[in-house]
Amino acid sequence: MTSAVLAGSALSKHFGGVLAVDNVSIELGPDAPVTTIIGPNGAGKTTLLNLLCGAIKADGGSVRLEGQDITRTHMRQRMAMGVARTFQHTGIFRGLTPTEHLVLLANRIRGIQQLRSIADLLETFHLSVHANEAAEDLNHVSQRLLEIGTMVSTAPKVLMLDEPTAGMDLAEIAQIASVIRQLRGTMQIMIIEHDIDFVLNISDRIVVLDQGRVIASGTPSEIQRDGRVAAAYMRRGHP
Amino acid sequence: MTQALARKLPDPRRKPARYLAPYLVMGAFAVTFIALPAFGLQRSTLSLLSLAVIFGIAVMSLDYIYGYGGMMSFGHAALFGFGAYIAGFSLQLVSRELFVGLPIAVASTALLAAAWGILLGRLEGVAFAMGTLALASSLRILIIQWRDVTGGTDGLVALPLVEVFGQGLKPTAVYYLSVVIACLTFLVLRYIVRTRYGLALQAVRDNPMRAEAAGIHVYAHRVGAMSISGGIAGMAGALFVYLQGSVDPSALGWQQSGHFMIQLLMGGPGTVVGPMIAAIAMTFLQHWLSAVTTHWELILGTAVVLFVYFTPRGILPGIMDWISRYRRRKGA
């Protein structure tokens, strides 16, 4: 891949004696608009996301956004540059309404070329009827959609979603998948996810992490055929 | 295009009643308090009313940082008292003019509060509250110890009347001034919290880490909020000095900070007007009860416990909740 929007090179991170991410390189580019990171619990998926968005500092390696080295920048600065993320536990602002969420962030980032209208965003994220309700009163899927919509309102170059379907039933997962499909191609999307059906359904490329390392990478069909992936999930060691 | 967008945007006129309730309550307050002196109130009652309104302004400033910024301050009376001392010094040393002394008090207290924000802005929850308590105690001790300048425990006494264009302001004028400033403070704070800056502050209150991830400078917003709140608290302190003609270190004490916090929690954080009404009500209740019985603190304490039990989100939000439930039952 030559035209990566976001690229992490040889990223490493220790937590005490545990090597959470071990020399991982990853590129998010237009040839795979939706890239999904999967792996067993403790594989280092969220740590990798945190390194890419600047929530934590890497012990080694670098991060580049459209070729520019952003390794030393803070999460807030990366957000302003176009690296947006959501969290495992829904990160809404409970006292604000969906409209206020969008007003707040849609106008914060300067230099946005294609700022979507708030009304369009509310519609896209199925929030029009809840526009003036306090976010804490919304149901789980609406809160999750609001969180994603709020990040989309900043017109990011890269959108990273940490377990967007956690705790949802099949209908709700389908709603999230539908929204991601609508966003596909308008920005680079990276997803961390456990629901394998959702992953196979939505991804252009899947990266498999185990014990902090990339053990496989490819299209959904390639990953399905890869014996190392099943082995990692079954904890039977690798070939 | 604009019309099409306007059709799609949520209609602001359809906002829930909770958005309008504070304005209705404040309107009722303004009309009542402007009309009250026409009923020939005694001077002591007028003075008590003024004091209650001034405390109400101070509690509104506390609501701004706690109700909207999530910063619990147990040292807010120190900012109030600092503004009072600065206004007193200004009367003695600089000018008796309101339009000179009041801005000096506001600006000085805003700067002090910003310095507090710089020191404490990275702390969360209880750590922040303890930090404000420590700084407030330090300031109070400094004022007591620096006797030559501050008058020590006696404070500043027999201060001259504040003037407007050379005319001394009598208690009735200070009363009206306080009511007008209370109304303006309410309007300004309600305006600020609807701006993008105010929304960002509420985002910081609700979820600092998410706010940071969303590109909001959490620390800067906290420092800014402290400064605005401090400026308003200092303004209330200045009005206190203009009313009383004196100030002593008890105005900065942690007991006073505690009163402010209780009044805020009873009134309903995040409404601006609720805490102000609670401050006025509690100031009166305290005055009347202390005249009737020496056990007034027991009665007031019990009343506070009952209010918190029955309206845990505060009186104004509690009333709004009751009205909503009543409407739902009626509609069902």
SSE layout:
The complex is a heterodimer of chains A (239) and B (332).
Chain A (H helix, E strand, L loop, with lengths): L5 E10 L2 E11 L5 E5 L6 H9 L6 E6 L2 E2 L5 H7 L1 E3 L12 H9 L11 H7 L15 H13 L5 E5 L7 H14 L4 E5 L3 H7 L2 E6 L2 E6 L1 H6 L1 H8 L5
Helix pairs in contact in A: 3-5
Chain B lengths: L1 H7 L8 H19 L7 H24 L9 H19 L3 H23 L4 H21 L1 H4 L12 E2 L2 E2 L2 H24 L1 H11 L1 H6 L4 H27 L9 H14 L5 H20 L3 H15 L4 H17 L1
Antiparallel strand pairs in B: 1-2
Describe the structure.
- The complex is a heterodimer of chains A (239) and B (332).
- Chain A folds into two domains: 1-82 and 157-167 and 187-239, P-loop containing nucleotide triphosphate hydrolases (Rossmann fold, 3-Layer(aba) Sandwich), CATH 3.40.50.300; 90-155, no CATH class.
- Chain A has nine helices and ten strands.
- Chain A has helices spanning 45-53, 75-81, 98-106, 118-124, 140-152, 170-183, 196-202, 220-225, 227-234, and strands at 6-15, 18-28, 34-38, 60-65, 68-69, 83-85, 158-162, 188-192, 205-210, 213-218.
- In chain A, helix 3 runs parallel beside helix 5.
- Mean pLDDT of chain A is 87; it is low at 109-115.
- Chain B is mostly helical.
- Chain B has a single domain, classed as ABC transporter involved in vitamin B12 uptake, BtuC (Orthogonal Bundle), CATH 1.10.3470.
- In chain B, strands 1-2 form a two-stranded antiparallel sheet.
- In chain B, a hairpin with a 2-residue loop joins strand 1 and strand 2 (167-168).
- The chains are: A alpha/beta (239), B mainly alpha (332).
- The A-B interface holds A 53, 55, 75-76, 79-80, 84-85, 87, 91-96, 99-100, 103-105, 107-109, 117-120, 122-123, 128, 131-133, 150-151, 154 and B 5, 8-10, 14-16, 196, 199-200, 202-203, 205-207, 209-217, 270.
